[in-house]
Amino acid sequence: MSIAVPVRAPRWVSRRRIFEQHLADLHKCKNLVHIKQVFAQILKSDLHSDLQVAAKLVSAFSLCHQMGLAIKVFDLIEEPNTHLYNTLIGAHVRNSQASQAFATFLRMQSSGLPADNFTYPFLLKACSGKSCLPLVQTIHSQVEKFGFRADIFVPNSLIDTYYRCGPLGVFGARKLFSMMVVRDTVSWNTMISGLVKVGELNEARRLFDEMPVKDAISWNTILDGHVKAGDMNAAFELFEKMPERNVVSWSTMVSGYCKVGELDMARMMFDNMPVKSVVPWTIMISGYAQKGLAKEAIMLYDQMEEAGLIIDHGTVISILAACAESGLLGLGMKVHTSVQRTGLTCNTLVLNALIDMYAKCGSLDKALSIFGGMPEKDVVSWNIMIQGLAVHRHAEKALELYDRMKQEKFEPDGVTFIGVLCACTHAGFIDQGLDHFLEMGRDFGIVPQIEHYGCVVDLLGRGGRLKEAFGLIQSMPVEPNAVIWGTLLGACRVHNDSEMAAEVLDRLVKLEKSDSGNFSTLSNISSAAGDWDGAASARFQMRSSGIKKPPGASSIDVDDEIHEFTAFDTSHTESDGIYQVVATLRMDLEEVR
DNA sequence: CTAGGGTTAG
């Protein structure tokens, strides 16, 4: 007699199967808690010295930006092979640790392991900017020497990297492409997109026409070339001629019309799209938001959510950036709510965009509280917060934050100092600002860019040290641009120095003939100083140059409606009431004095 | 390795 027992695998079998499943997908896993659990099981099963398993763990940890753990796993292996080295190099590159990637590469070479055809594309990905060109050339010659050009992946990736070095890389890319016996569609497309990237549209077009078999990417790339050149007529012509139009083609057109400000055309394209992904929705909403069309942007955002589309970080960052630019707090808060709902709240880029949006829209408390609760801050987070405090005249707090940043061992970059100098300017801490300017190069090896000189000119100029500012402009190693002279001109206005203003304007018109604002500034300074001849002469120069430029406007978001104002503006429907309030405020201010 | 949206400054 037998007893019926339900047929069921023992618990340990299914557990083991689950473990194996987890192991198989480990390298794509982004859930840190889960990875750590699997890691614990791996250690228990003594699998950590398995080269395959170790590589998967390194990948998984690098996806979660846990490079410390990735390196720990790597170091458990006594004799790593090329594949494991490649994985660690790729992990560093993914976390934008270019120098560590190259250090790992050198370590691999000194351990006697040869690089393979996977190593080079990883290393190349770490190269970007014109300073990398010599490095790319070195890698290129190694590739030639060891015959890795045979793998089409490698030369394709080299071409792409040459173009990421900017216009200086064009020569190398062209030469390599011309020497390639075997070219695939990707080789051609990489060339075309590279030429578009460096602004050589005609050359890109020539290659496109020459290309034997074009695919959708080729067409979309050259379409984007015309869009980037701002030529929507040419883009439209091409769009009509395309053999097939996919979501990317339509999105490129929508984005192009948004960029040239033709929102109606953009909307028409958007409405006509046969299939929409989250990207065109993002483009259209950001397009509205950038132009300050809050109602349209919000309506479309609601429609997108109703349509059940899942927003991603791209959506959030793009829309928030537009909100920050135009001061659309209402839409920004809506996006914040969606972020909390979709669990994007631990994404550093998303949080940075949120902080910036709140700061730019004037909600510093909100910005500070998100900043304080961030699990993983990066340099950009600090920069945004410092800048946000600085422009809202919380100079001391901005500088305190800068000190805290250094205490917490974050390395300030060039942008950090823009915020720091801005804070010093607003607070009138001239000498402290100059100290920070020196600190920048001395302690952090940052070469001052023209923007930094602009900040220092502003710092000195607003503080009334006009002569020093003038001297700095003449002695700085970069050629002064219109922004620099314009900054000094503004300082001349504040301090009513019509003599220097005339001198500055002289240099300014050489650089920027078409800005009427400069002339009116001089005219204002001259009249304020009682120099009526100077004022008249400035007005005459302005008229004779035939310049007309719309004045800069301020805007404010009231119940999702954007109101714009210029100086002495009477066009608003509530204009009379507004000026009454202004008059009252002015009287109140006089009293406080 | 190639196509559309994407955080900080000016």
From TrEMBL:
One of its GO terms (molecular function) is RNA binding. Pfam families: E_motif, PPR, PPR_2. Gene3D superfamilies: Tetratricopeptide repeat domain. InterPro entries: E_motif, PPR_At4g14850-like_plant, PPR_rpt, TPR-like_helical_dom_sf. Transmembrane segments: none annotated. GO terms for biological process: RNA modification; system development. The keyword Repeat applies. Keywords: Repeat. PPR repeats lie at residues 81-115, 184-218, 246-280, 347-377, 378-412. It comes from the Eukaryota. PANTHER family: PENTATRICOPEPTIDE REPEAT-CONTAINING PROTEIN, REPEAT (TPR)-LIKE SUPERFAMILY PROTEIN, PUTATIVE-RELATED. NCBIfam families: PPR. Belongs to the PPR family. PCMP-H subfamily. This is Pentatricopeptide repeat-containing protein At3g29230-like.
